[in-house]
Amino acid sequence: KCIERAAKLRELNALVTETFQIARSQAEHAAAGYSVGSGEPGPLAGIPVAVKDNFCTKGVRTSCASHMLQNYAPPYNATMVQKMADGGAVLIGKTNLDEYGMGSASVESIYGATRNPWKYRFSHRNNVEFENQVEQSNNGPDNENNDLYTSHPAMRGYKGSLSERMGDKNYTDWHVAGGSSGGSAVAVASGICFGALGSDTGGSTRNPASYCGIVGLKSTYGLLSRHGLIPLVNSMDVPGIFSRSVDDAAILLNCLAGHDVFDSTTVPDEYNPIHLPDDISVKGLHIGIPKEYHAPGTSADVIDAWRKMADMFDNAGAKVSQVSLPHTQYSILCYSVLCCCEVASNMARYDGIEFGLRTNDMASTEQLYADSRHKGFNDVVRGRIFAGNYFLLRKNYERYFLKAQRVRRLISDDFRTVFNNGVDLLLTPTTLSDAPRHDWYVQEDNRTRSVQQDVYTQPINLAGVPAVTVPICLSCNGLPIGLQLIGQHFGEKQMLLAAKWME
Ligand code: GLN
Q1: Ligand 1 atom with minimal separation from the 453 CA
Q2: What is the percent of the chain where pLDDT is above 90?
Q3: Ligand 1 test: best mutation among 55, 176, 226, 454, most atoms within 8 Å of CB?
Q4: Which domain holds residue 93?
Q5: Is the Cβ–Cβ distance between 476 and 304 less than 8 Å?
Q6: 103 CB under 6 A from ligand 1?
């Protein structure tokens, strides 16, 4: 059913490589009671999943949505991919992203933009065909929730019917999926799969999850292995989890977490699996509302949802108070400097000789490097390499790189201070608004300004703490709005308990 759905929804451009063959054989294995080690079926036995195209998949193209790696088929699986397979999961496909994870909308890809399924009007279908599809899905994996536009239980009751939206003749445009892991978010939100892997360096899992109305989890740095995740910013990259519910996110996290000998930044401590009861009380929980998280450009709907959720915590017996994270305002700048520096270093390997696309300009070795890198990378990637090398020049190193490292410490200490003062969790918006329209987003000015979209998510990566976005309600445009809970280092359990209570 998921394969059928993926084939029907190609127009959304969520999958860049379909692995239906692999999926069928993995599903057969799962159906035959295939098990790992213990003789029991794995925790994900038979569950269709998708994986962002920056995780290495053995023998399957892993392109980072870049010409540079468009013919690259890795000889090994990323640890996250291997753990999902060991758990019995069924890989439906690799998902679209902004090239190398650089972006916030999944529009900067060699495969073209991913489309947000919400309010999306399929060009090649009429209403009748579309209704058939809904009917079919009644028997399928999505039977509880057969509206294409809603994938999450929290959204039930909010939506207009499918045919109503299809009949909305005035609606000709579509909204961005968010990014950079937009393909994974859309695959889960549209019912192509039940869970997906993304990566989160500055918000790339939480942003698209919020725009697409699903759960997006960024765990503590060091809990999930980065082995085989093609790096963007090594000191901030974290594998991200997309799911339809918080319970599903916990199941995936339990399968994926833990020390990996291939990633020296994973913590050696034993991981305790998280089980979330149905009856959750938030009584006595101390929820902090950071006063600096009122960034200009935040939409009224987002503020409203945030305020109401704070009231709900309060009414349920939680202690809700305003707190301060005073260095928040420097986070976008700090991230920009550090990101570019690590990008400049990471991208140096793609020289067209040892790794990556090789062009035909053989006039000299230097010319071959230059031509391959020019044709292999898009202008966003080249711009960051350029900036990063500038920041790392001997004369600039102290002024930019070291200074940004110090600011990073201050931002990180802000979180430490509020948590040391008794705050359990922070409640914030995830994004400034609901998903922007694609035509608006790609205008030059807005694209530059889009850096601001990460204002609520980036500080979390600088500090390495966990965060989760939960879909809360619909905006006045009929698009999903998510809110973010930020936890303490390795405090995933408490954070997910409160997140489940929220949904
Ligand atoms: N939008 C941010 C960037 O372009 C974050 C991306 C990410 O988390 N991968 O760097």
Answers
A1: 1
A2: 82
A3: 454
A4: 2-277+487-502
A5: no
A6: yes
Strand, coil or helix: what is 415? helix
List the chain residues with pLDDT less than 70: 34-39, 123-172, 446-450
Q: Specify burial of residue 48 (Cβ count, 10 A radius: 0-12, 13-18, 19+).
A: buried
In ligand 1, the atom with minimum distance to the C-alpha of 461 is 8
Here the tokens at position 80 are: 């996250």
Is residue 244, in this structure, part of any structural domain at all?
Answer: yes
* Six token digits for residue 189: 């939100």
* Residue 188 neighbours by CB under 8 Å, 6+ apart: 50, 151, 194, 195, 196, 212, 214, 242, 243, 244
Ligand 1 pocket residue status of 232, Cβ below 6 Å:
yes
CB-ligand 1 contact for 237 (6 Å cutoff): no
Give yes or no for residue 151 CB within 6 A of ligand 1: no
343 belongs to a structural domain: no
Q: Say how many Å lie between the CA of residue 165 and the centre of ligand 1.
A: 32
Give the pLDDT score at 440.
Answer: 87
Instruction: State if residue 104 touches ligand 1 by the CB under 6 angstroms criterion.
Output: yes
**ω before 180 within 30° of 0 (cis)?**
yes
φ, ψ at 439 (rounded to 5°): -65, -35
At residue 49, φ and ψ (nearest 5 deg) are -135, 165
| Ligand 1 in reach of 339 Cβ (< 6 A) | yes
Number of the ligand 1 atom closest to the C-alpha atom of 205:
8
| Alpha-carbon gap, residue 464 to 467, rounded angstroms | 9
Counting the structural domains of the chain, the total is 1
Contact predicate 333/379, CB 8 Å = no
Q: What is the pLDDT of residue 36?
A: 52
Which pLDDT does position 362 carry in this prediction?
86
Burial class (CB in 10 A: 0-12, 13-18, 19+), 144: exposed
The confidence score (pLDDT) of residue 172 equals 55
CATH number of the domain within which 184 lies: 3.90.1300.10
Distance between Cα 343 and ligand 1 center (Å)? 11
**Tokens read off for 20:** 């239906």
Tell me what pLDDT residue 361 has. Answer: 85
Residues annotated as catalytic (active site), given as ranges: 52, 180, 204
The values of phi and psi at residue 2, to 5°, are -70, -40
Query: Could you give the 3-state DSSP secondary structure of residue 203?
Result: coil
Q: Does residue 372 lie in a domain region?
A: no
pLDDT of residue 123: 67
For the stretch 22-35, pLDDT in tens is 999 999 888 877 65
How confident is the model over 117-141, as pLDDT tens digits?
A: 999 988 655 433 333 333 333 333 3
Q: Is residue 175 part of a domain?
A: yes
Nearest alpha carbon to residue 462 among 217, 202, 226: 202
Tell me the CA–centroid distance for residue 396 and ligand 1, in Å: 24
